[in-house]
Amino acid sequence: MASNLDIVDDADGFPYEDPTSQGLYLFRVAGLSTTLGYIIPSVLYILRDCPGWSVDEEQRTVVLESGQTIEERSAAIRKTILAMCEKECFSILKGWRDETFPVFGPGHEIVLHIERCACPLFGVVTYGVHVIAYVPAPADDGAMKIWVSRRARSKQTFGGMLDSTAAGGVASGETPLSTILHECNEEASLPSDLVRRNAKAAGAITHFYVRDRRSGGEVGLLQPECQYVYELPVPSGLVCKPNDNEVEAFQLLTVSDIVEALARREFKPNSALVMLDFMIRHGVVTSENEKDYLEIITRLHRRLDFPLR
Amino acid sequence: MASNLDIVDDADGFPYEDPTSQGLYLFRVAGLSTTLGYIIPSVLYILRDCPGWSVDEEQRTVVLESGQTIEERSAAIRKTILAMCEKECFSILKGWRDETFPVFGPGHEIVLHIERCACPLFGVVTYGVHVIAYVPAPADDGAMKIWVSRRARSKQTFGGMLDSTAAGGVASGETPLSTILHECNEEASLPSDLVRRNAKAAGAITHFYVRDRRSGGEVGLLQPECQYVYELPVPSGLVCKPNDNEVEAFQLLTVSDIVEALARREFKPNSALVMLDFMIRHGVVTSENEKDYLEIITRLHRRLDFPLR
């Protein structure tokens, strides 16, 4: 059985060390001295020959030289990614969705947009939302229950694993709030007015995932992530049902069912962190029953050394 | 008016940089390679002449050489601190309470105990608890209210400032839970059975405070801190009352009263972080209304580069 700290390690495997001493390169854009992501050598090897890029071995930077506006930079990186697709450089690009994620610079300003599936090639921060719908404990002292989804087995990443009630990436043009409204509807058939009225922001988790075999695509690609967390109390009569082909089924689980499923590593890694954070916020995992309580809490809110949204 | 990020800076002013490049020394004990705290040059200057200590300028370490057990190390450091008191080296030692705090090493093992008021001389992590008692929003859609204390003006630190409902340090021999039980009783007259039944652990915040004028004693001493946070829903009829001379009075405030008091910097710095964390957990401060939302969340759970409890 996995400990809670093992579960954190699963989704937060990036070492707390200087990235260049780990052999990584710093992704930047011309005219901006801020590092936007970390690039691994196998990606550098390809970018080195792409037009519009420069590599400085001494500074260990990989700079997108083309473009001075958001639109120009986004078009330039899209061109690079499309060329990579054509040459079939990376299997991760088979996940092309024609949906972009924004990359932020200083002052929360967007620097460029990158095709979603290509983000791990540049090691940029991506943003997601997770909604945990729960039936509050009844007044007669029963237990709280939580709506947990099982991902469709056909999904390209983490098929068949347990997940939050609804979750999704915050794509370009979206906000965390707009994203939860449509994800709750698409994934769990939850009406937007109920979500809008009752969903409560409850913080965020941040972690630095090193992609492994389960995530599909190349192993070792870097994925620093922020998950905005929302809680949604729902009446006991309400039933979450799949509304698209992303979810196989829903289950209404007790807190102890979830603690056991976490220990069996049945949750998708980043969703496991969201669940663990929920358990800490609700006094299920405490300093009395978890020896690594403080370490887990700081890891779940890890500082990412990039400008954030 | 202070922004939420200003409030974080007030209690988390230590730079995210290598401590030795900041001119600091690493506090260690003989036989253990782990750094337990950071020592500033004015303290080093005194320790250099104290028996039982060695300084390595190249490694920038200050090592307590005396003692091989918890008891021996604790006695050795107590002797050093008493000698400092006698010579009146540091005004912070006027706060002597004859109460110790444990310092943890790898594997959550206690390495030694240090007199409470002397901890900032060695820059070791200290642990506190904060309880936020609140009257939940009534079903007819009223607002939640929170019991906030005002510190006695006579207190040696942060006299007259606003504070959580009850708070205190986790002294040697105590646990977070045992500490909240007695602090809730001593500071707010809350009966232990109510606290034991209803208090819910809700996580912890971690931050790195650089002592300033308001904290009394020498400016610039270092205080990495963990605050275990508990929430305590209380019935609307219950009244918090001071039970010792540490608290001047209690007020039952709305969330917006508290947001305003935070912006006026009326809260004690670390209690302000606890309140801010509460506001984030309860969906008052959100990504929609706080541009530095993610930065604030990671700062409130800052990684401290020492072994933790």
UniProtKB/TrEMBL annotation, chains A, B:
<dbReference type="InterPro" id="IPR000086">
    <property type="entry name" value="NUDIX_hydrolase_dom"/>
</dbReference>
<keyword id="KW-1133">Transmembrane helix</keyword>
<protein>
    <recommendedName>
        <fullName>Nudix hydrolase domain-containing protein</fullName>
    </recommendedName>
</protein>
<dbReference type="Pfam" id="PF00293">
    <property type="entry name" value="NUDIX"/>
</dbReference>
<keyword id="KW-0812">Transmembrane</keyword>
<dbReference type="InterPro" id="IPR015797">
    <property type="entry name" value="NUDIX_hydrolase-like_dom_sf"/>
</dbReference>
<dbReference type="GO" id="GO:0044715">
    <property type="term" value="F:8-oxo-dGDP phosphatase activity"/>
</dbReference>
<keyword id="KW-0472">Membrane</keyword>
<dbReference type="InterPro" id="IPR031804">
    <property type="entry name" value="DUF4743"/>
</dbReference>
<feature type="transmembrane region" description="Helical">
    <location>
        <begin position="25"/>
        <end position="47"/>
    </location>
</feature>
<dbReference type="Pfam" id="PF15916">
    <property type="entry name" value="DUF4743"/>
</dbReference>
<feature type="domain" description="Nudix hydrolase">
    <location>
        <begin position="126"/>
        <end position="277"/>
    </location>
</feature>
